[in-house]
Amino acid sequence: LGCMEWEGHNSVPPEIWLLPNWFPFHPGRMWCHARMVYLPMGYCYGSRFVYEHAETDVIVQALRKELYCSHGDGNGDDYGTTYAKIPWTKTRHMVAEMDN
Fold first, then answer.
1. What's the whole-model pTM score?
2. Which distant-in-sequence residues (6+ apart) come within 8 Å of 63 by Cβ?
3. Which stretches of the chain are DSSP H helices?
4. Interatomic CA distance for residues 6 and 21, integer angstroms
C-alpha cells in the first residue's frame, strides 16, 4: 500500500525458491500455511510493490498518521516525528512488548 517503507521490512528473498528441493530449508519443506504466506510475501518483497498514488492518497496518509506519527492529541508530531523522519532500517526488529 505504501504505508511503510520497504527498508523497514526484514527480507523475504524470493530467490530461495530456486534452491534444489533437497536443500534443508527449501520453502517446499515448510509447513503448508507458512509456505502459502512466504510465496506471495517473497513476490511482493522481490518486486518492492508500492501503490503509485500513496503520497497523495487520503486513506494511505491517514493510515501513516495513525500508525506511526499520531500520539497524544493526534496532530502527528507530538513526539517530534513525522513519517518522513522515521529511521526505517532501525524499525525492522521492533515488536510490541506483549508480542515478545
1. 0.66
2. 1, 3
3. 32-47, 58-64
4. 29
